[in-house]
């Protein structure tokens, strides 16, 4: 497994050791093998660990099979994958509603399996969407880039924007919910607001369109708790239309869609900004808009 990276102009000069350890987050054991096997080339030549690399330099890394053991997954169906963006290291796809992001059992087949078959190699989950949620979702195409993308996610450098059709009217154009979220001890499938034992969660909500009895809102996650948007909205009296867990009278599909995903590419430092279409979500919004006009 070989990768060639050109150091972007916006990065400062650093030693080879700093590049591999701090920037690329390569584990210590694998760094040792890269060093002893002379599997790091700078501009096509072997290098010392303390040599400086600078913007514009070409870094070639060669990994042995033992460095990153590939996990075998049951085959999926490539035809089920709607690609939104892809390069050598990552892929963003449009997840359909009703499909799990990844399997919970070894023989189960989910979106991860379909994406891996589509790409032709084992991919890795960076973040997940609930089964009934549709929209943009990011996968790493190799284990080398996975911890780097995970760090971007932890540092809140991957922006995720959702659209939700929620019940009722919102009192203001923008609202920030910061209620702590914990497990519901009465129903293992659910989460709830738990001020004492819950984990901090922050959701920024912007009203997009008022349909009278329902409202289309934009939700931006600042944390990534399970069911965060669904719990925050339901707790404040605005359950998402069609939510089978948090709406007292769910009808139709869960009206939550990961509309946009934005990140800075870890190697090129270019901005990747992807929007995901959804015919079923848009059709339901049109229906609510029409009902509001006819009232």
UniProtKB/TrEMBL annotation:
Residues 89-235 form the Pseudouridine synthase RsuA/RluA-like domain. Keywords: Isomerase. It catalyses: a uridine in RNA = a pseudouridine in RNA. One of its GO terms (molecular function) is RNA binding. The keyword RNA-binding does not apply. It comes from the Bacteria. The keyword Isomerase applies. Belongs to the pseudouridine synthase RluA family. This is Pseudouridine synthase. It comes from Streptococcus cristatus. The lineage of its organism: Bacteria, Bacillati, Bacillota, Bacilli, Lactobacillales.
């Amino acid at each position: 497994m070989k990768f060639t990276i050109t150091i972007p102009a916006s990065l400062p000069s650093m030693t080879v050791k700093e590049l591999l350890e701090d920037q690329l987050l390569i584990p210590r054991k694998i760094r040792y093998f890269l060093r002893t096997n002379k599997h790091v080339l700078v501009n096509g030549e072997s290098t010392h660990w303390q040599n400086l690399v600078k913007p514009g330099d070409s870094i070639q890394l060669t990994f042995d099979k033992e460095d990153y053991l590939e996990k075998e997954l049951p085959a999926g169906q490539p035809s089920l994958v709607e690609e939104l963006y892809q390069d050598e290291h990552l892929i963003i796809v449009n997840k359909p509603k009703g499909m799990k992001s990844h399997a919970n059992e070894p023989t189960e087949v989910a979106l991860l399996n379909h994406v891996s078959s589509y790409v032709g190699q084992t991919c890795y989950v960076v973040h997940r969407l609930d089964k009934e949620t549709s929209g943009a979702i990011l996968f790493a195409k190799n284990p080398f880039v996975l911890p780097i993308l995970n760090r971007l996610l932890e540092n809140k450098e991957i922006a995720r924007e959702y659209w939700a059709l929620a019940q009722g009217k919102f009192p203001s154009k923008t609202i920030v919910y910061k209620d702590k979220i914990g497990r519901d001890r009465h129903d293992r499938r659910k989460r709830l607001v738990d001020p004492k034992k819950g984990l901090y969660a922050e959701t920024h909500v912007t009203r997009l369109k008022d349909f009278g009895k329902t409202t289309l809102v934009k939700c931006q996650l600042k944390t990534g708790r399970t069911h965060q948007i669904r719990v925050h909205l339901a707790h404040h009296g605005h359950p998402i239309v069609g939510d089978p867990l948090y709406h007292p009278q769910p009808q139709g599909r869960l009206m939550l869609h990961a509309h946009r995903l934005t990140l800075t590419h870890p190697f090129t430092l270019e901005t990747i900004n992807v929007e995901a279409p959804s015919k079923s979500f848009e059709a339901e919004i049109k229906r609510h808009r029409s009902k509001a006009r006819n009232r």
